[in-house]
Design goal:
58% of the residues lie in helices and 12% in strands. The protein has 358 residues and is of the alpha+beta class. The protein has two domains: 140 residues, tt1808, chain A; 206 residues, no CATH class. The longest helix is centred in the middle third of the chain and has 34 residues.
């Protein structure tokens, strides 16, 4: 996040004007007075780089419980950059902060705020605790809040930039290997042609061969992401469609392409994704996060000419149809139905069976 808020800015003046109007009406309860600070954060979020959206009543899932903060500022990947918790002037803010922290509220970039005071925690330490009835103090805490970037966010943003730039190179290397193996590897040719026929039967009889090649590239580059983020180490064996793709990949990597060595070049990117995904606390957030990862992936892989395969792979990771498909047998007719269901529902063909499929 980055911001250059000043006391003279309209959003700061609007904040104090709103509090003044509430004061004239003798309105001081939390539900009302917190709206002024919420509006300020929302306006600042829209001007931040990258832009951030304030999500009210943001739930944070824990291993055995959950907490709900009054707001969280999230980026386009649905990753939270900061949190906010409001109290009214009747509360003992310092005591409320300790109580909230004991309950499991985050300690990394969270503002605890009342109309007259704000306390900011970053990296587990209290770095601001001042009266914010002065515009200079208010601007100071808001700027510190938006200027802070957690280590995992910084790592993620750097990795995404690097990965997006490298995707054409990596995809080209796999495509070249596919072309070479088609010329000299009969086992790969048979495996590829079987899967290609299956896809034409299930998706579109006019499906170009290039689309299936892209599917192989996409699966090779992203299989680990789904396996790790959804904590399903054997989904390529349990998932009917993923298992069929793996058969083709296995033939592809037998001679010319060492899968482990090739993917080792992406280790930093994978770690950044997995670390960022830990900040998403429920399945729907993981879905949203991976949707955006796919969007960035395709921008680097094929920014000018997305295929029909790319179009449905990067859509929502809905689990209903996929779970139904994943429970089917591995017979070809069942695989065809699974591919059909996945493509009809715009579900990634390499998406894992989630825990709800067990």
């Amino acid at each position: 996040m980055s911001l250059d808020l000043k006391p003279s800015h309209a959003s700061v003046k609007a904040y104090y004007d709103t509090l003044h109007q509430f004061g004239q009406l003798y309105i001081d309860h939390e539900g009302a007075v917190r709206s002024a600070f919420q509006d300020l954060l929302a306006k600042c979020g829209r001007k931040a780089k990258p832009p951030l959206t304030l999500v009210p009543e943001y739930r944070i899932e824990r291993a055995r419980s959950s907490v709900i903060v009054d707001g969280a500022l999230v980026d386009l990947y649905h990753l939270p950059h900061g949190y906010w918790e409001a109290k009214d002037e009747k509360d003992d803010l310092a005591r409320e902060v300790e109580r909230k922290l004991d309950k499991g509220y985050p300690r990394d970039n969270i503002i605890f705020q009342a109309p007259e005071r704000a306390i900011l925690y970053q990296s587990g330490a209290r770095i601001f605790d001042e009266n914010i009835t002065r515009p200079e103090a208010l601007v100071s805490v808001v700027n510190q809040f938006f200027d802070y970037k957690a280590p995992h966010i910084q790592e993620w943003e750097e990795a995404v930039r690097d990965f997006s730039e490298r995707i054409p190179e990596l995809a080209a290397a796999v495509s070249k290997t596919i072309d070479e193996e088609k010329k000299r590897n009969p086992a790969f040719v048979r495996s590829f042609e079987d899967f290609y026929a299956l896809c034409k039967q299930a998706i579109n009889p006019n499906l170009p061969e290039e689309a299936v090649e892209r599917m192989l590239v996409q699966h090779l580059l992203t299989e680990r992401i789904f396996r790790k983020i959804f904590d399903n180490p054997d989904f390529t064996r349990r998932n009917v469609v993923a298992a069929e793709i793996e058969k083709v990949i296995a033939e592809l990597t037998k001679r010319s392409l060492n899968r482990d060595d090739f993917l080792r070049n992406l280790e930093r990117f994978y770690r950044a994704i997995e670390r960022s995904a830990e900040e998403t606390t429920n399945f729907s957030e993981k879905q949203a996060f991976l949707n955006k990862v796919y969007e960035r992936f395709f921008q680097g892989y094929s920014p000018k000419k997305p295929t029909p395969t790319a179009s449905f792979i990067r859509r929502s990771l809905s689990s209903t149809s996929w779970c139904a498909a994943s429970r089917r047998s591995s017979k070809k007719s069942s695989v065809a139905r699974s591919v059909t269901e996945a493509s009809t529902s715009l579900i990634p063909l390499s998406a894992p069976a989630t825990s709800s499929c067990a």
